Amino acid sequence: MIARVALIGLGTMGPGIAARLSRGGLAVTAHDTSDAAVERARAMLPVAGGALDRLGVEPPATGAGEIRFAASIAEAVDGADLVIENVPEIVEIKAAVYRAVDPLISAQTIVATDTSGIPISGLQGHISHPERFVGMHWSNPPHIIPMIEVIGGERTAPATVAAIRDLIRSLGLLPVVLKKDLPGFVENRVLYALLREAVDLVERGVIDAEDLDTCVSWGIGYKIAVIGPMALLDMAGLDIYRSVSSFLNADLADRKDISPAVEERFAAKKLGIKTGEGMYSYTPERIAALQADRAGKLIAIRRILEGRA
Amino acid sequence: MIARVALIGLGTMGPGIAARLSRGGLAVTAHDTSDAAVERARAMLPVAGGALDRLGVEPPATGAGEIRFAASIAEAVDGADLVIENVPEIVEIKAAVYRAVDPLISAQTIVATDTSGIPISGLQGHISHPERFVGMHWSNPPHIIPMIEVIGGERTAPATVAAIRDLIRSLGLLPVVLKKDLPGFVENRVLYALLREAVDLVERGVIDAEDLDTCVSWGIGYKIAVIGPMALLDMAGLDIYRSVSSFLNADLADRKDISPAVEERFAAKKLGIKTGEGMYSYTPERIAALQADRAGKLIAIRRILEGRA
Predict the structure, then answer these.
(1) Would you tell me which of A211, A283, B183, B217 could form a disulfide with B176, CB atoms 3.0–4.6 Å apart?
(2) Helical spans, DSSP H, in A55-186
């Protein structure tokens, strides 16, 4: 049974993951090499906790688990049943963490990576017990989105996949187990397919960014939130899908490289919210208002989707 | 000003469109060559009206507009300021309607097509006043989704696009004006890009249909409903998108033909809900329960997205 979790790397996802695991009764020990990341995480934990309160996520009878911050990887993984690696998406950085963790853990400890799409089979070679290594891809924001992808690599034991799947279920969350290990897994492959076409349409001047967002949020997001893609095919009719895809598939974007619209903004350091400009422009006040508005809507909608509104 | 609307072709979208226009105070005269389609529409109107009640869509002070069923195209278009063509997605069927309507309407009457993606420039050649011809693509279910694409063809007058955009706004709905006319417009291009990858993943055995739906509904639909694709790029950071798309774009599905998973089901007459089997299997009870559940969730979520919950 998994009771103690070490979280290595706090970054964007760390505070939400720690808050959610703790709310499920697990003891979490977190470590990050950056003091700033630790300070940010400390500040974010009550925010994530507040969102969990509004989502109605109650701790088990045993109570919420403790969250501690450890000064070293060794301290973080001491006694852990599960180590979750959440460091930047660069193989060498991840491999260094696995090599550091490897001599400190027992053969029973599961090591999970929160990579958003680096294949597991390549990563698990950096650890002595690849059969205990698995992908556990949380969706951002991790304390609000209840779905987690579980990905075994070539050498991952089925029991390891099952243990993570069962842990996710025991938290009241939704594990989605992939049967193959491929770049981007499922969530990001489908998202990047959507984004490839969407960016292309804006770049080609077919539609303004704001109208694209209105169109896709209402015409696709809102609908797909309630009716998944396969269910939507059944609703529209496979004959209709067949007829339209017979000419439309050949006309869709299939760019293999990076969109020039993205390259230009990258070169101009227009990276989005973090630089105040990207596809849109932002003021600090606007960012704060957007974040509060989006979190509030996601929380209210999740209760409806779960039939608890 | 547009006060009287003729709706030619009832099909799937007709009853919802008629109900929504009527609720906006417009007088609607509808015609379909199929008596069965008219009977189905009569039965559906109170259902759509009930959904509009639950959405809080009030009629204007002048009251809801009358909905009449006409025995002929001539009777339907008599005195209409706007004709909405909603017949099957076959150019020859649409062209026959335009030719029938053409001698019956004034030069001021706007003719709009609800095609879901046939370019407007090709369709408008079948009518004497192509400058008064425009695309008005409602999203299904049309009484529930508030976004409507507006598409001008090469010969559409800007004033015609503006008139339809203003009509949509006056109804309290969200017009999205395209700046170019291309197959699938924006909504269906982005949806088909998403579906191309999703179908491919299920077909390749990466994930079961049900898990795919869970993953995409929560990881993409739920999020995109609140945060449009361009806003999501800004939230994730264009540097992150650039880094991932630099390798992932080249690995995504770019099938030009119809997916074998779809062809096989089509050949076996497994077309979805209407045949009781498609990507999933259905009983009549299950279909009724799904429809009620989905409509209820869409209505509740729309109120949240509009800040009215």
Answers:
(1) A211
(2) 73-77, 91-101, 120-123, 158-170
Q: Which of A238, A291, A293, A302 to mutate to test the interface with B (most CBs of B within 10 A)?
A: A238
pLDDT at position B55 over 80: yes
Evaluate whether B128 touches B189 at the Cβ level (below 8 Å). no
- For all residues of chain A together, what is the average pLDDT? 97
Is B7 strand, coil or helix?
Answer: strand
Nearest by CB to A301, from B214, B222, B242: name it. Answer: B222
Residues of A in contact with B257 (CB under 8 A): 246, 249-250
pTM summary value: 0.97
Element (H, E) at B251: none
DSSP code, position B89: S
Q: Which two tokens stand for residue B135?
A: 């695309």
Longest dimension (CA), chain B: 60
Instruction: Please report, for residues A217, B168, B185, B220, B297, the alpha-carbon distance to residue A213 in angstroms, rounded to integers and kept in the order given.
Output: 6, 18, 14, 13, 21
| Separation between Cα atoms, residue B223 and residue A141, nearest integer Å | 9
Ordered structural domains, chain A, with CATH: 4-177 (3.40.50.720), 187-305 (1.10.1040.10)
